[in-house]
Amino acid sequence: MRTRPLKVALLGCGVVGSEVARIMTTHAEDLAARIGAPVELAGVAVRRPGRVREGIAPELVTTDAAALAARGDIDVAVEVIGGIEPARVLITTAFEHGASVVTANKALLAEDGSALHEAAEKHGVDLYYEASVAAAIPLVRPLRESLAGDKVNRVLGIVNGTTNFILDRMESTGAGYTEALDEATALGYAEADPTADVEGFDAAAKAAILAGIAFHTRVRLDDVHREGLTEVSAADIASARRMGCTVKLLAICERAADGRSVTARVHPAMIPLSHPLASVREAYNAVFVEAEAAGRLMFYGPGAGGAPTASAVVGDLVAACRNRLNGSTGPGESAYAQLPVSPMGEVVTRYHISLDVADKPGVLAQCATVFAEHGVSIDTVRQQGKDSPEDGASLVVVTHRAPDAALSATVEALRGLDTVRGVASIMRVEGE
Ligand code: HSE
Fold it and tell me: Would you say which domain of life the source belongs to (predicted)?
């Protein structure tokens, strides 16, 4: 074993960074044996220097992250600050000064992954980011390496723990969205500002990363259709239950049937209770990968939290250190396929539509005509009258698969009918 240690700069020492430091310290001997050289924490960049950080020598702590990234003797910089800046400039600085980078930064990778890959390649160093998607669950490496010989057609999963916790509570207690969010906040599952999670930005960034790797194509956050879960009501959950379904916030990346384009989207959807994703409870994540030769693979586990995220970070650190010793680099960006990313309107899916309608002759036929005019085939219809005919009726329609644009146009046309008093809920149906 080499005795001269590999030097690691830790950029950020919050929930994840402090766990990375802890694992590096407590498992130092094992890590050295696995890598073939000791690994030394050479500096830790923090925002608040006064805080006591257990296990980290005070002389390693600095507030000058830029100087640490530019030191020139760093083998691997671990970026766990998050967000776009200063993370982007720090990573670029580390590359320019010869360091490989391990990051958990999904937002940056989804916005600028290609530029980061290019910079890493230019400087002959590594960029690893397993922790950016679903924390401890191995997804990036299986897609990049284990499935490199296969053809992935679909990636479908729950990649945000906060929203899964909220939906799980709505499902199990009958609570509304706000009540469930309050509980998630009180238990520490939701951030003080939950926007990135509940509006689907976090999941969309992960979808962009997964789609890019799965389809060997550049996919950015802006390419991902995104709908959060703020509009999901207790009534939607109850409707789903009546259909033998539950509601999940799904990230879905698909290759078109003709193989010439791909799509990536995040939105709430009904899935049958019999689908394995329906039993993913609380803040857990789970992802299905469907590949031509491998078939259906499911990855499941904790998708957030300091220790699970640090597990993935340190795994990448080991890989980057091994490469460093061998004088090699791991796989770079694979975007050779350059498939176009189609808009949501071209996605073929199913809708569950719940309408409040007048309860009088011809209404059902009138609504059915609107579906037919838009080329949308109806799978099932369920009508339930209210206490008196003047109160109208509830009409629940589930469609067969159709382009999303046709389904949206159908709903718009239904809204325009005098006999349709309101559209109570619209939700896509997936996983069948
Ligand atoms: N906030 C994310 C979640 C974890 O709730 O899953 C970090 O991506």
Answer: Bacteria
For the chain, the structural domain boundaries read: 6-135+306-326, 140-302, 345-429
Domain 140-302 belongs to what architecture? 2-Layer Sandwich (3.30)
Residue 122 annotated in active site: no
Domains 6-135+306-326 and 345-429 share a fold: no
User: Which of 160, 191, 280 should be mutated for ligand 1, with most atoms under 8 A from CB?
Assistant: 160
User: 167 alpha carbon to ligand 1 midpoint, in Å?
Assistant: 14
Ligand 1 center to 258 CA (angstroms):
34
Phi, psi of 104 (to 5 degrees): -110, 15
pLDDT tens digit string along 53-84? 888 999 999 999 999 999 999 999 999 999 99
**By C-alpha distance, which of 143, 151, 155 is closest to 331?**
143
Q: Is the CB of 105 under 6 A from ligand 1?
A: no
pLDDT digit string (tens) for 247-293? 999 999 999 999 999 999 999 999 999 999 999 999 999 999 999 99
Does 345-429 carry CATH code 3.30.70.260?
Answer: yes
CATH code for the part of the protein at 6-135+306-326: 3.40.50.720
Strand boundaries in 273-311, DSSP class E = 284-291, 295-302
Give 169-193 pLDDT, tens digit per residue. Answer: 999 999 999 999 999 999 988 888 9
DSSP state, residue 86? T
Supply the pTM of this predicted model.
0.96
